[in-house]
């Protein structure tokens, strides 16, 4: 089963909206600027979808804010240029976002992909790329917005949680939903086992959602 078939099973969009696999010219291809703060497993899943030809896009840059972030090792292995913009070097969220916008523009990015970016973004970034900023959140939004979403779901007693790819708007985790995947919470789950199963789904839906939004 490809990620596109999977998409048909887990998302309510109709079949005609499933992206075709026809390839674009270099000029038409979406240029994804990825933002990551940590491990970067979603970054890697997106790059692998691009490099395997499943996602017709380019990834000219990944920006990270934590100098220790493991995403930098993944970027080196995958051959993607990486730039560190440490939030501690900026006086405000707006100043950091202004620097991010400058780097993204330098790389001719037209889609901004937040993949585990652990900072709240401001209109400085959102308005620079109107309706072209996406995020992935580890819950079935609108449930469990904000930080520690997996823990919130786990402790609430719900039996099903999941992950959501959505457009970014100034209100945190509130933009239009593009795709979701559901994940059951098992009696035997720990936070770690639940997170591992969630990430399997995240890695499927993020490339597919990008294809829908940017395709
Ligand atoms: C993911 O669970 C994502 O939903 C959340 O942050 C996590 C990032 O994981 N926003 P990774 O760095 O992509 O492995």
What does this structure look like?
This protein is of the alpha/beta class. The protein has one domain: Rossmann fold, CATH 3.40.50. Helices cover 36% and strands 19% of the residues. The chain has helices at 3-10, 41-51, 71-78, 93-106, 123-126, 149-156, 191-214; strands spanning 31-36, 58-64, 82-84, 111-114, 133-137, 160-167, 177-184. It has a seven-stranded mixed β-sheet, with helices on both faces. Helix 5 links the parallel strand 4 and strand 5 (133-137). Helix 2 (41-51) packs parallel to helix 3 (71-78) and helix 2 packs across helix 7 (191-214). It is globular and about 50 Å long. The relative contact order is 0.18. It binds 5-O-phosphono-beta-D-ribofuranosylamine. 5-O-phosphono-beta-D-ribofuranosylamine binds next to helix 2 and strand 5.
Secondary structure elements and their pairing?
Elements: H1 3-10, E1 31-36, H2 41-51, E2 58-64, H3 71-78, E3 82-84, H4 93-106, E4 111-114, H5 123-126, E5 133-137, H6 149-156, E6 160-167, E7 177-184, H7 191-214
Parallel strand pairs: 1-2, 1-4, 2-3, 4-5
Antiparallel strand pairs: 5-6, 6-7
Bound molecules: 5-O-phosphono-beta-D-ribofuranosylamine.
Residues 36, 38-43, 115-116, 136-138, 163, 202 line the site of 5-O-phosphono-beta-D-ribofuranosylamine.
In short:
This protein has 215 residues and is α/β, with parallel strands linked by helices. It has helices at 3-10, 41-51, 71-78, 93-106, 123-126, 149-156, 191-214; strands at 31-36, 58-64, 82-84, 111-114, 133-137, 160-167, 177-184. The chain has 7 helices and 7 strands, in the order αβαβαβαβαβαββα.
